[in-house]
């Protein structure tokens, strides 16, 4: 078919025309597509992924709110809960491994989770003729924050989202370039579209019009942040929700459930940390992406955001009660409203977690962190056995084709 004649709309006739042109069979096209029509462009079929449900996961969660006018994150309470986590994937052994980690933690007293920060960043850039122009511009811009906030509040522009609120601005000058990190909060949505629209209006309507030296050009996203990929900037300063999960594993639970020892786990953590440093890895962890991608796929999250979301920093330290282990996810990009979370299947799995709709995103972020640590514990335990025999056995028995 001529590329210029390829049907691009999501009406029934266009969908049918694409299916017929590609000769797709009923396995791909035999599902009613109307509920999916707003999810993406040129909708043609669906991909079905098996979903397991793993639990119970025992945890103590924080309750959080943003305090205005500065948007500081405040913990307002803590509560214990038991959840069952949906995992959409085709990775043999993943669900069983995550269950094993969750069981060891439950027998050790459960997880404790914390939300440390809430900021989502758009990394713009303003280009000048020289550093002599870019340097004073950066100083001017960082001093304009209050004026910019007021200006945004006064605008009656349909392109602006009222849910995205500007919290900070950080500049970084390199030669004639002034990179600018606009840092926002966006409620229960990930907020990428919101902050992109707002940053564009801000760049063109305020900065380009009022700068003491007008930039030669504005670039809406210039890659200094690291959206949808690992980056030191987000590893250190956060992006989306910065979340921490921890537990103290008892020696009994480690022996009976994980079939290894506390010293073995600590030795592996020591070796793994040095391995991460030697490789230049922007993480200190073994397998966070598997858990995060599986939860994301089940709950309608943006799968491209697994890149940033799976950056992790794990620790392990012997304490009197056993082995204290933790994982910090600095760039967890999650939502409980908007986007794929509105699809029927995703809504159902979010409801299972008690995370559907407004006011639930901090709860959801903490559950994702706990599930990630559960998998990390189990995978680490398998690797910590003599010769990593348990790790080999899991992949040999559940690894699919031979």
Unreliable sequence segments:
none
Global shape: globular
Question: How far apart lie the N and C ends?
Answer: 39 Å
Q: Can you write the helix and strand succession as a string?
A: HHEEHEHHEEHEHEHHHHEEHHH
Major sheet summary line: 9 strands, mixed
Oligomer: single chain
- Secondary structure: number of strands: 9
Q: What's the rounded overall pLDDT mean?
A: 93
Give a quick precis of the structure.
By secondary structure, the chain is of the alpha+beta class. It has helices spanning 12-22, 26-29, 94-107, 131-142, 145-154, 192-210, 232-237, 251-258, 262-279, 288-299, 306-309, 344-352, 361-384, 389-398, and strands at residues 51-67, 72-88, 111-127, 165-174, 177-185, 217-219, 240-249, 313-319, 322-332.
Question: Please, could you describe this protein's structure?
Answer:
With 402 residues, the protein is an alpha+beta fold. Helices cover 40% and strands 25% of the residues. It is built from 14 helices and nine strands. Strands 1, 2, 3, 4, 5, 6, 7, 8 and 9 form a nine-stranded mixed β-sheet that branches. Strand 1 (51-67) and strand 2 form a beta hairpin. The longest helix has 24 residues, at 361-384. It is globular and about 65 Å long.
SSE layout and pairing:
Blueprint: H1 12-22, H2 26-29, E1 51-67, E2 72-88, H3 94-107, E3 111-127, H4 131-142, H5 145-154, E4 165-174, E5 177-185, H6 192-210, E6 217-219, H7 232-237, E7 240-249, H8 251-258, H9 262-279, H10 288-299, H11 306-309, E8 313-319, E9 322-332, H12 344-352, H13 361-384, H14 389-398
